C-alpha cells in the first residue's frame, strides 16, 4: 500500500513520486491559507516542523512532542551525565545495553544507525554525549526530504525569502488560525434574524451553553455551523462574513424542546427553535 503522508511528523518513509506531489500540495495549501483572510488550514504539526520551515533551530524541549523516549534519554544525558551526577552503575540502569541506533519515526519503523557502524557500538558513560547529539540530530533531520517538498509547494504561493521574517508561531497562526475559539470575537460577528435579537431568551441560552463548552466542544460547534474548526484571527479577517442565528417556528402546538437545531454551513448560520431551557 501507499505510505501515509503525515504521522506525528512528516512521514520519513514517504519517499515516492506520489508522496512528493502530496507534500508539495500540502505546501501549496499552507501557502494559500496565509494569503486568504478568514481561511485557515489547521494542521496538527509539532513545533519543530514549523521551526524548520522558517529556519529556526529546534530545541531539546521540542523533542518531547515527537518522541518521549528519545527526549528522556537526551535530557538524562544533558542534565545528569554532563553534570557529572551519574556513576557507571546508574548510567547502565538507565541507558545500558543501547547501541548507536534508533527506530525511524517513518511508517516503516526501520532501525537506523546514528553513526557509521552504530549497530556494533555500545552507548557508554564516556560516549553518552555523542549518542545524545546523534539521536537528537536524527529526529530533526530524518524528514528533510518531505520538508523540502512542502517548502517547494509553499514557495509556489509565497516567496520563501519571506519565511525567515516570521517566527514559527507566527507562521503557525497564519496557516492554522487561532487554536482557541474566542466567543467575544464570535459575538461581535453575529447577526440575528427571523424574530431573534441579541436579547432573546434562546439567544442568551445559546451563549451561556457555549461559555460552558470546552475548547474542543467549541471547535465541534464551529464544525457544525461552518464546516471548519477555527475562527479567523481577528475581526478584520472575517471580511464580510457574519455568523447568523435565526429563529425557527415549530408546528402549532408542538413543543420546541422536541426539535433539534440545524445549520447551513455554506452560510455560517444556525437555526434555533425557541427552547424553554438549556437542558
Structure description:
With 279 residues, the chain is of the alpha/beta class. It contains eleven helices and six strands. The chain has helices at residues 17-35, 47-54, 60-66, 68-81, 88-95, 128-141, 144-155, 168-176, 183-188, 201-212, 215-226, and strands at residues 101-103, 111-113, 190-193, 243-248, 262-264, 269-273. The radius of gyration is 25 Å and the shape is elongated. The two termini are 48 Å apart. 26% of the residues are buried.
Q: Keywords for this structure?
A:
279 residues; two-stranded antiparallel sheet
Largest sheet: 4 strands, mixed
Q: Provide the gyration radius in Å.
A: 25 Å
Q: What's the pLDDT, averaged over the residues?
A: 90
Total of helices: 11
Distance between the termini: 48 Å
Low-confidence stretches: none
* Approximate helicity band: 40-55%
**Strand percent estimate:** 5-15%
SSE ordering: HHHHHEEHHHHEHHEEE
Q: How many extended strands?
A: 6
Short overview:
Helices cover 43% and strands 9% of the residues. By secondary structure, the chain is α/β, with parallel strands linked by helices. Strands 3-4-6-5 form a 4-stranded mixed beta sheet. Strands 1-2 form a two-stranded antiparallel ribbon.
Protein topology:
Layout: H1 17-35, H2 47-54, H3 60-66, H4 68-81, H5 88-95, E1 101-103, E2 111-113, H6 128-141, H7 144-155, H8 168-176, H9 183-188, E3 190-193, H10 201-212, H11 215-226, E4 243-248, E5 262-264, E6 269-273
Parallel strand pairs: 3-4, 4-6
Antiparallel strand pairs: 1-2, 5-6
Helix pairs in contact: 1-7, 1-8, 2-8, 3-4, 4-6
Amino acid at each position: 500500500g501507499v505510505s501515509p503522508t503525515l504521522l506525528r511528523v512528516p512521514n520519513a518513509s514517504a519517499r515516492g513520486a506520489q508522496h512528493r506531489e502530496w507534500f508539495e500540495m500540502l505546501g501549496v495549501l499552507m501557502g494559500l491559507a496565509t494569503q486568504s483572510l478568514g481561511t485557515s488550514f489547521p494542521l496538527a504539526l509539532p513545533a519543530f516542523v514549523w521551526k524548520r520551515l522558517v529556519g529556526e533551530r529546534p530545541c531539546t524541549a521540542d523533542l518531547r512532542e515527537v518522541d518521549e523516549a528519545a527526549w528522556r534519554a537526551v535530557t538524562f544525558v544533558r542534565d545528569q551525565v554532563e553534570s557529572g551526577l551519574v556513576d557507571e552503575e546508574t548510567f547502565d540502569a538507565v541507558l545500558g545495553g543501547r547501541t548507536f541506533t534508533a527506530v525511524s519515526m517513518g511508517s516503516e519503523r526501520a532501525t537506523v544507525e546514528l553513526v557509521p557502524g552504530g549497530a556494533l557500538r555500545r552507548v557508554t558513560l564516556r560516549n553518552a554525549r555523542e549518542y545524545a547529539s546523534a539521536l537528537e540530530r536524527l529526529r530533526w533531520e530524518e524528514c528533510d526530504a518531505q520538508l523540502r517538498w512542502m517548502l517547494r509547494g509553499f514557495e509556489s504561493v509565497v516567496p520563501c525569502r519571506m519565511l525567515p521574517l516570521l517566527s514559527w508561531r507566527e507562521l503557525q497562526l497564519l496557516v492554522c488560525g487561532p487554536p482557541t475559539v474566542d466567543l467575544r470575537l464570535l459575538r461581535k460577528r453575529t447577526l440575528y434574524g427571523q424574530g431573534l435579537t441579541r436579547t432573546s431568551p434562546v439567544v442568551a441560552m445559546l451563549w451561556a451553553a457555549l461559555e460552558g463548552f470546552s475548547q474542543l466542544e467549541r471547535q465541534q460547534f464551529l464544525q457544525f455551523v461552518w464546516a471548519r474548526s477555527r475562527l479567523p484571527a481577528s475581526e478584520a479577517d472575517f471580511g464580510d462574513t457574519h455568523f447568523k442565528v435565526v429563529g425557527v417556528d415549530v408546528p402549532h402546538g408542538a413543543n420546541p424542546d422536541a426539535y433539534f437545531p440545524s445549520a447551513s454551513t455554506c452560510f455560517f448560520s444556525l437555526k434555533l427553535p425557541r427552547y424553554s431551557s438549556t437542558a
